[in-house]
Design goal:
Blueprint: H1 2-8, H2 23-51, H3 77-91, H4 97-121, H5 131-151, E1 157-158, H6 165-171, H7 178-185, E2 201-202, E3 206-208, E4 216-218, H8 227-256, H9 262-281, H10 284-290, H11 299-319, H12 328-345, H13 352-355, H14 357-380, H15 392-395, H16 414-434
Antiparallel strand pairs: 1-2, 3-4
Amino acid sequence: MLYHLFEALKEYDIPGQGLMSYLTFRAMMASVTAMLISLIIGKRIIRWLQKKQIGEEIRDLGLEGQMQKKGTPTMGGIIIFIAIMVSVLLFADLTNIYTIILLVTTVWFAGLGFTDDYIKVFRHNKEGLSEKGKLVSQVLFGLGLGLTVCFSPDIVVREKVQMDDHVQAESGMQEKTAASQTLDINTEFKVKTGEWKEEDVVKSTKTTLPFIKNHEFDYKWLSPFRGAFGWYCKWAIYVLMIVLVITACSNGTNLTDGMDGLTTGTSTIVVAVLGIFAYLSGNIINAQYLNIMYIPGTGEIGVFMAAFAGALIGFLWHNSYPAQVFMGDTGSLMIGGLIGVCAILIRKELLLPVLCGVFFVETLSVMIQRSYFKFTKKKYGTGRRVFKMTPLHHHFQKEGIDALITKPVRALPEAKIVVRFWIIGIILAVLTIALLKVR
């Protein structure tokens, strides 16, 4: 709203008015605002949750320090939700298609998670919303997003990125100059200006893939058909991929949310990297220099992700060990949904197995454990386990040797496990960024 207010008052000479035109300034302000909101309202919401006795119901799984968490307020994802919404509404361009999609994503997945938490807490049903119900909601959203990406005229990529020689000379391809900042401001492309050819701006099923020359993979390569039917087939494949990414990311963060600060800290790292990618992809100079896909308008995703990261950092203040509040499904489903949607919009979804390696391995551990248990129960009559307990973070927290993988035999302190997962997340984030230059 502040962004649009200053845009409307452009004709008046208000000191500092031009700052609102810069993506970097608005991103920083959104991040700081979201952080302060999380810190300030977090205390009040935690007190309200305690007053209403909205506490986590803990099952005794034999984990160290587990029962001490009983009664800790849950549904803290409300704090993250409020911080994101307020800061984005203040500093983002609300007419930008990507901002609109991310706001809808926030509301959708926060609502889904809130419904699940409500059933658990207020109706005292430990199972919450059924797995089928969650999956249907995630798939429906994925289909809606896929169709939006397919048919919206505002979601395009620009091929053959080339700038005029004089702009290249002024920018120097190093630090941002006045020319590059002007391009940074104009995140929306205009074909009519003649700055680039209309045929270079296309609807595309291309995405980023490391280790190949141009860093691009086109989903049409998976289509067995050509011609008109092949066109429909490639978009159908792309939509299915979008549904898969949304579902996997949302459930991955949900499974990882089992230790104080684990999901919050790991997600902050992922969100920061996606914000950097969004900014680079939405800036024509950076896109050309790094030889990555230029996607007009995605600079606003950088503003959103900055607010998202700020909200997570502020929430981590309350959620770090020992946690004063848990995010619940209200937070975990929303975080995963936003990460998946952002990766799709900036065409980086194929980098998620690396960037979100912690979430990926956590999900994989559950799938392996369930499959192996069912297989051995059918074959030997008694189910056997690969890990002492899943998701994977609980494997390190549990004593015993009753599994194929027994190390470490002694349980590790929760805080140590969380910090080590954060370190792994940072390493994966650096590796993901480095992949931009690996061909």
